[in-house]
Design a protein that fits this description.
One of its GO terms (molecular function) is alpha,alpha-trehalase activity. By secondary structure, the protein is mainly α. The chain contains six helices and five strands, in the order ααβααββββαα.
Length: 159
């Protein structure tokens, strides 16, 4: 993880004002890192990144982007592995193609084990602070269907 200190340049004044809620410089720096991560996600200013007592009912100061495992990021990592596998296959590099195919398979297993929720029939973000799935729906919850990051033995379930 790359640490970038201080407020975001594009929102300097607003970030300094929001950081006044925090007493220590370390807490302020953590806050700046959290809101930078939220902005990089494309979901800045979303309650998706709030963690307050295990819920998303917080305020801006409760942004904890770095403590949430997002569904779509993991689906995209899987997809990148598949793309690289296909790329190496085109180059006739079977060993590298298989290496990335294994990574994709392992990633699918991990996404299923950690993010899939049978009860709701969707993948859910995971809260690392409270060690639980976040039972909130966002369009990104179904990104594994788009990338193909799901157990193909469950195809009947997704048809």
């Amino acid at each position: 993880m790359i640490n970038s200190t201080g407020p975001r340049p594009e929102s300097y004044r607003e970030d300094i004002e929001a950081a006044k809620n925090f007493k220590t410089e370390n807490d302020k720096e953590n806050f700046y890192s959290e809101i930078k991560a939220a902005a990089e996600s494309g979901w800045d200013f979303s309650s998706r990144w709030f963690i307050l007592n295990g819920t998303n009912k917080g305020k801006f100061k409760d942004t904890k982007t770095r403590s949430i495992v997002p569904v779509e990021l993991n689906a995209l990592i899987f997809w990148n592995s598949k793309i690289l596998s296909n790329f190496y296959r085109e180059l006739n590099n079977t060993i590298k193609a298989l290496e990335y195919e294994v990574i994709a398979m392992e990633w699918t297993n991990a996404v299923t084990a950690v993010l899939w929720n049978e009860e709701v029939g969707a993948w859910l973000d995971f809260d690392l602070l409270n060690h639980k799935k976040r039972n909130y729906f966002y369009p990104t919850n179904i990104s594994p269907l788009w990338t193909g990051c799901y157990d193909k033995n469950q195809t009947d379930y997704f048809d």
